[in-house]
Design goal:
Order of helices and strands: EEEEEEEEEEE
Strand content: 35-45%
Number of strands: 11
Oligomer: single chain
């Protein structure tokens, strides 16, 4: 079992930046492709894909809504992944979740159904 703990959320002004972190409890974390999803207010309970990264960081993918403003990265030595978001918009507000999966193919995935492990989420609020 892998435990994922997100941190770094908070209140940010529109146009600002923030970096989210997700620490994993297991050393085999480095074997897992990972992803970030968010649940935004006013929408249904589905978690919206934000970004994903392959097990070794060699492949990344992004939702169109954050492409060019967002960078996902990982430090396998520290069992941690990161999500940097720049030029934050009010629409970026929500609860951000990191997720992990054991299947290595495809190297990245934007489907929440493909992820077995989830953190508790960290709240991001964007003031306009």
């Amino acid at each position: 079992q892998v435990r994922l703990v997100e941190s770094g959320g908070g209140l940010v002004q529109a146009g600002g930046s923030l970096t989210l972190s997700c620490a994993a409890s297991k050393r085999t974390f480095s074997d897992y492709p990972m992803g970030w999803f968010r649940q935004t207010p006013g929408k249904d309970r589905d978690r919206e894909f934000v970004a994903a990264i392959s097990w070794n960081g060699g492949a990344t993918s992004y939702a169109d809504s954050v492409k060019g403003r967002c960078t996902i990265s990982r430090d396998n030595a520290e069992n941690t992944i990161f999500l940097q978001i720049h030029s934050l918009e009010p629409e970026d507000a929500g609860i951000y979740y990191c997720a992990g999966r054991t299947a290595l193919r495809p190297p990245t995935s934007g489907s929440a159904a493909n992820y077995e492990y989830w953190g508790q989420g960290t709240q991001v609020t964007v003031s306009s």
